[in-house]
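Interim report to the steering committee. The following record documents the input for DNA uptake protein ComE-like DNA-binding protein (325 residues).
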Amino acid sequence: MFKKLRYYLRDYFAFNNTEIKGFMFLIILIVIFIISIFIFDFLPDKTSNANTIDPKKVEEMMAKIEIKESAKKETYQDRFNNQYEKSDKEYAENRVFKLAPFDPNVASQEQLEQLGIASWMAKRIINYRSKGGQFRKKEDLQRIYDFPTDLYSKLEPYITLPDKTGKPFPTNTKTDFSVESKPVASLPTKESFKPITFDLNRADTNDLKKIKGIGSKLSARIIKYRDMLGGFYSENQVREVYGLDSTVVDEVLKYGTIKNPPLRKIKINEVTGEEFKHYYIRPYVAKSVIAYRQQHGNFSSRKDFENIKLLDAKTLDKIFPYFEF
């Protein structure tokens, strides 16, 4: 067959032997190239599968990353707590403490340390008082972050707090009636300004300062926290304000009400990743919400948010009233 082909090529094209061999080699290459095209068409497209992104896998990867980050934070917190525990034990072994009655509202740092309270915890109590915090009940001492429960059980019988009525005036004072006394008009006190019911979302510092136990600092802190959230939708949110003990919160809720709260809504289907910021939600969780919306489309109900693994149910309960579809 090849001899006949070489004869026809030499006779028709007037090729010599070298040109005939080159021509036949070129024909073989062309045939191989054509066959290879058909072969590659039947092979599976691995590159296209590799480039496609599975949203479920992406969410699983983000969840694993979050678990690793939380584990790192927990290990760091454990080391931090162990370090404090060791320092407390060494502090307790090297000093002799004397238990005596004390008022946590007025006790100095040195007096607190003499009772067995570590120096860093005593500074924390002083800092709490400097920001307007008060101890109205014995249990309020446990509101101090990381206050040891076993130490509280030892100090609880020695905690002395002033009566709600205050100390009585001394009765052995002598009064000189030789000079005619004139009636003096009583100055207005805070108790004389009786608070009336008000809306917590529309109240200002003047309304809050009429409540017993609320001063300029605490009233400004409540307003700041309310504005940071975008308004209160529940009375329990007042308990989240730093520095408010249980007695003061009960007094605030006695007069403060919430009706038709004008919340500052977040348009969840339009907000961008840079704009989506709120006190209740962490930045990486906000990014996962935006990523889920980009993959699955706009949100239409609360059930759509339950599919986001990084958004736990507790956080969703807090942040959902601020969403607007």
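The chain is about 50% helix and 0% strand. The committee is asked to note this result when reviewing the revised timeline.
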